[in-house]
Every structure is written in structure tokens, then in C-alpha cells.
Amino acid sequence: MTDRKSELETLRADLTARLSRYEAHQHREGGALDKDFEEQATQTQNDEVVDSLETETRAELAQIEHALARIESGVGDECESCGEAIDPRRLQVLPYTTVCVDCAED
Ligand SMILES: [Zn+2]
User: Fold this and answer.
1) Domain range for residue 14?
2) Considering just the CA atoms, what is the radius of gyration of the chain in Å?
3) Are 43 and 33 in contact (CB under 8 A)?
4) Is 69 domain-assigned?
5) How many CA atoms lie within 13 A of 54 on its CB side?
6) Is residue 62 in some structural domain?
7) Which of 17, 21, 59, 74 is the most buried (most CB within 10 A)?
8) Rounded CA gap, 96 and 22, in Å?
9) Rounded CA gap, 70 and 99, in Å?
């Protein structure tokens, strides 16, 4: 379980770093859009991609925080939905999960 926690903390650090790269991209620190028109079109497309990546990353991060909070309160390996123990193999594959396989399928 300690392993799972440190794994989650590593994941969290990774995602946080990724998020600040996305934010830097979005705010483009230092600049207007490129003068070249074609380049501009590509950048706009990139922005949309980065936008959805950012949303995705935020959701993942929230899930990780949530799993970590449950670990902190000593219920990290209990299913949030039914209260049964979550299969350790499942936690190994999905360290950020907070529900057992049965509840995840519902
Ligand atoms: Zn369950």
C-alpha cells in the first residue's frame, strides 16, 4: 500500500508538471500568434488538442487526489461504493481507482 501511495504521488507530480506545460502553451508566455497564417491555423488546432488534454489531465489529477485522500484516511483499499476490499491486483493495474471491479462494471 505504501508502494501504491508513492506511485500515486509520482503520477500526481507527473500530471502536475504536464498541466503547467499545457498552461504555458495556452498562455503562450511572451507572445502573440505567429505571423504566418498557416502556422496560425495549426496553432489553433493545437490549442484545441491541448485544451482537451488539459481537461483530461485535470480529471485524472482529481481522481488521483481522491484516491490519495482515501489512502490517507485508511480506506484506500476499500470500495467507495460497496465497502468491500478492492482486489490488490486491480489496485496494481489501476492505482488511482476507488471502486471494486464489480462496482466499476455497473
Ligand atoms: Zn464495490
Assistant:
1) 2-76
2) 19
3) yes
4) yes
5) 15
6) yes
7) 21
8) 22
9) 11
Instruction: Return d(Cα 61, Cα 90) in angstroms, integer.
Output: 19
Domain count, the chain: 1
What is the Å distance from ligand 1's center to 85 Cα? Answer: 8
Give the global pTM. Answer: 0.80
What's the 7 CA to ligand 1 centre distance in angstroms? Answer: 22
Q: For residue 98, tell me if it sits in a domain.
A: no
pLDDT digits (tens, 9 = 90+) for 14-62: 999 999 999 888 777 655 556 676 777 787 888 899 999 999 999 999 9
Is 92 among the domain residues?
Answer: no
Query: Cell 482537451, residue?
Result: 52
Residues with CB under 5 Å of ion ligand 1 are 79, 81-82, 100, 103
